Amino acid sequence: MHDIRAIRDDPAAFDAAMRRRGLAAVAPRLLAIDKMRREAQTLAQDLQTRRNEISRQIGETKRRGGETSALEADAVALQKDRERHEEEAKRQEDAAKAALETLPNSLDPDVPDGADERDNVVVHEVGARRDFGFSPRQHFELGEALGLMDFSLAAKLAGSRFVVLRGALARLERALGQFMLDLHTGEHGYEEAVVPLLVNDAAMYGTGQLPKFKEDLFRTEDGRWLIPTAEVPLTNFAAGEILPLSALPLRLTALTECFRAEAGAAGRDTRGMLRQHQFRKVEMVSIITPEASAGEHERMTRAAETVLERLGLPYRRVLLCAGDTGFSAAKTFDLEVWLPGQQAWREISSCSNCRDFQARRMNARFRGKDGRVAGFVHTLNGSGVALGRALIAVMENYQEADGSIAIPSALRPYLGGLARIGEK
């Protein structure tokens, strides 16, 4: 959410920021609404002042034994006028809020301009791509041949974009989650949390999923929402709070199921596990002071990169351009892993600095050293990483010519020393 006072102070700068997002000038409309709101509020306050004066006159007149009916009639009329202007101020306030809550975050200055993913900038590439000596297969070919990945059974149970994992592949996915949690809590300073998978409107609104992305979400009949990522409950730990400086930075991680309708993904990645309605992910969230958020963004991204490095997976870091940066983010690094079966780089983690955008929506603030409220916190979130895509990457990068899959050494302790997944 944007601060209307900042827009009022420099509307040209705000429109320039929104143009980078591909939006036409919006400041004039916002300021017109804001002007009507402030005028209505001023009129309501003036009327209240006049009514207070009349009330004083009524009291004095009564003490003198005088007639007050005319004054009382004026007071009633002023009260009705005041209520009318207050209602108008509320209408304009709601209109301003409705307009502001659909506008994306302003981008950091170093985010490159661009329309879509083709304009993203590769920051660095880590790890050598393996020379297989044979034509590598895609994960679903490997999994189905092993009899451990079943899309037909999942479709019978739930429909398209679901999968059933069995045996060693199910265990491998579980091992990935345990490995990531142990790494983030043991080495990166994150506190593990178990959170609700169902949240209310306020939680979804606070992180920016509502109202703009309603169609991408699943809602229950009692009005709750299935989380698209643990970012939602974890970030909302700070909602409505004034955190002491001693509580920051607050670093949280959770392994949860995630649910996404994939409303805009028709026809994309229909084979395999790349784009599912339900998947598991380890999420990282940081809640921090404004001056520390840029450094925290780098720290978080390195934590996600460490996962891929420990797994021995080739990856690259990509700085997203203006047109590809998410709604709530001011700056985003994507990590893309190499999938030899597809012969393509695919996103496996996204780490974003939202600055105070989410904090304003959820009214999350902090106190300075003097104990006074110092302002809004900054929030960051990142995948650390998605289990399904990590499973895909391990399968494709560690496959052998006979269709078996070697286990990365970092995961073997979680699999009882198992070194290879062979035929069922």
TrEMBL record:
InterPro entries (alphabetical): aa-tRNA-synt_IIb, aa-tRNA-synth_II, aa-tRNA-synth_II/BPL/LPL, Ser-tRNA-ligase_type_1, Ser-tRNA-synth_1_N, SerRS_1_N_sf, SerRS_core, tRNA-bd_arm
Main localization of the protein described in the UniProt heading: cytoplasm
Localization per Swiss-Prot or TrEMBL: Cytoplasm
Catalytic activity: tRNA(Ser) + L-serine + ATP = L-seryl-tRNA(Ser) + AMP + diphosphate + H(+); tRNA(Sec) + L-serine + ATP = L-seryl-tRNA(Sec) + AMP + diphosphate + H(+)
Pathway: Aminoacyl-tRNA biosynthesis; selenocysteinyl-tRNA(Sec) biosynthesis; L-seryl-tRNA(Sec) from L-serine and tRNA(Sec): step 1/1
Gene3D superfamilies in UniProt: Bira Bifunctional Protein, Domain 2 (3.30.930.10), Serine-tRNA synthetase, tRNA binding domain (1.10.287.40)
GO CC annotations, alphabetized: cytoplasm
A GO molecular-function descriptor: serine-tRNA ligase activity
Positions with a binding annotation for ATP: 260-262, 347-350
Residue numbers binding L-serine: 229-231, 260, 283, 381, 383
Coiled coil region boundaries: 33-102
UniProt KW keywords: Aminoacyl-tRNA synthetase, ATP-binding, Coiled coil, Cytoplasm, Ligase, Nucleotide-binding, Protein biosynthesis
UniProt keyword annotation of Cell inner membrane present: no
Residue span(s) of domain Aminoacyl-transfer RNA synthetases class-II family profile: 171-408
PROSITE patterns, per the entry: AA_TRNA_LIGASE_II
GO biological process: selenocysteine biosynthetic process; seryl-tRNA aminoacylation
Domain of life of the source: Bacteria
PANTHER family according to UniProt: SERINE--TRNA LIGASE (PTHR43697:SF1), SERYL-TRNA SYNTHETASE (PTHR43697)
Assembly description: Homodimer. The tRNA molecule binds across the dimer.
Domain notes: Consists of two distinct domains, a catalytic core and a N-terminal extension that is involved in tRNA binding.
Described function: Catalyzes the attachment of serine to tRNA(Ser). Is also able to aminoacylate tRNA(Sec) with serine, to form the misacylated tRNA L-seryl-tRNA(Sec), which will be further converted into selenocysteinyl-tRNA(Sec).
Similarity field: Belongs to the class-II aminoacyl-tRNA synthetase family. Type-1 seryl-tRNA synthetase subfamily.
Protein name, UniProt field: Serine--tRNA ligase
Native source species: Acidicaldus sp
